[in-house]
Amino acid sequence: MHPTLADDLSRLPEILQSARDVAAREVAGIGERPVAVAGPAPDAARLPEHGAGADAALASFTERWAPGFSGSAGPRYLGFVTGGATPASVAGDWLTSALDQNVSGAGGSWAQELERETVAWLRELFGLGEEHSGAFVTGATASNTVGLAIGREWLGERLGVDVFRAGAAALGPVDVLSGSPHSSVTKAMSVLGIGRDRLRPVPLLPGNREAVDVAALEAALAEREGRPAIVVANAGTVNTVDFDDLRAIAALKERYAFWLHVDAAFGGFAALSPDLAGLVDGLDAADSVCVDLHKWLNVPYDAAVQFTRRRDLQVKVFHNASPYLGLPDGEPDFLHLTPENSRRLRALPAWFSLVAYGRAGHREIVERNVALARRLGAGIEALPGLRLLAPVRLNVVCFTLAEDPSPERVAALARAVEASGEAYVTPTVYGEVPGLRAAFSNWRTTGADTERVLAALAKASG
């Protein structure tokens, strides 16, 4: 064994303690450190010829790179839809690395069964029935891709084509109908050979909405004269967290042939709150569902889950035919269900957080975040320099400048907020108007944090 590696092995407890001390120091100060970091990164270093050991690597990281990392795990990072990492999920994630289980198959480990248990808990958390099976993937993009891949195979089943053998071209043109699809949907269409241009936008409801007009969707389905399609519905759009009427869309399946995929990346968490659960009524009727866990479940990147009613079609698409991997009979190993063969035990951080805080703890995070988003929205309405672009429907506040919201002025506002170190928000365009989004999904965020964000916005827009 290389002498430096051997020395690190002999000192592993001390090395882990040093890493723990660095992590604890960084996390302890995350509420007060600048939320975003500007300025150039260090110059690129040369690849070391002779390693210096883990202690030196930790020291180098702490000195050169740690100061430039954002406070994205902290309470005032409101960009994208970014959760933090609960204490229990961090512990689970550290153990995931330390135990280093490959969850492609059973492999003499109970890790695969832990993932099955975690998926079952999540299925219950989101109000799905036992007919939905699931698997962990990296994020919403992978989850949407898996769901649409299964839907593509379903189209083949309807048309008498084995797509997993003959390829997507054997289907002919495939149409994907949606009102306000996330950009990852068209990315998935590109990856799957469906083609980005096969997206068929469906008119939205009037009145500043992002939800699909179900009557217009029915008309679009009727025009297909029986040819099956894929419908992507939204349980929480990115800009304004609007929800399609999932129950009404699912009812159309009685008259029209389509695969219903629901993108519930973060909106699906509305199911945790009795006051909000009506927003996702009908989610259980979907053929496939995407939920992103490193958003509102507040587990570390990267973790999402994918659910479907048609595991048999999922196995057709993703099975790996090799003698040393075994055949996907009975309860298939996870390598037969997702694009990956080698799979990290992403379920363990989620398992830790669910055991530690339960349904009630995660419900409190969701309800607090929603209340704080509404609080920020009300504060923005009271500021003379800003205005809301849409009502605060759940956990995202979409707003812009009250006067002359040009791309340049809105971008300058975002830079000013970022430079303050108090908050981070991301740009968007809604109704052809440049704006900003503040998304509340971090377990740490409090009312005091929200007031600091509001003060930063007031100063930057004043």
Automatic annotation (TrEMBL):
Belongs to the group II decarboxylase family. It comes from the Bacteria. Its cofactor is pyridoxal 5'-phosphate. InterPro entries: Aromatic_deC (IPR010977), PyrdxlP-dep_de-COase (IPR002129), PyrdxlP-dep_Trfase (IPR015424), PyrdxlP-dep_Trfase_major (IPR015421), PyrdxlP-dep_Trfase_small (IPR015422), Pyridoxal-P_BS (IPR021115). Keywords: Aminotransferase, Decarboxylase, Lyase, Pyridoxal phosphate, Transferase. The keyword Transferase applies. PROSITE patterns: DDC_GAD_HDC_YDC. SUPFAM superfamilies: PLP-dependent transferases (SSF53383). This is Aminotransferase class I/II-fold pyridoxal phosphate-dependent enzyme. The keyword Transferase applies. GO terms for molecular function: transaminase activity.
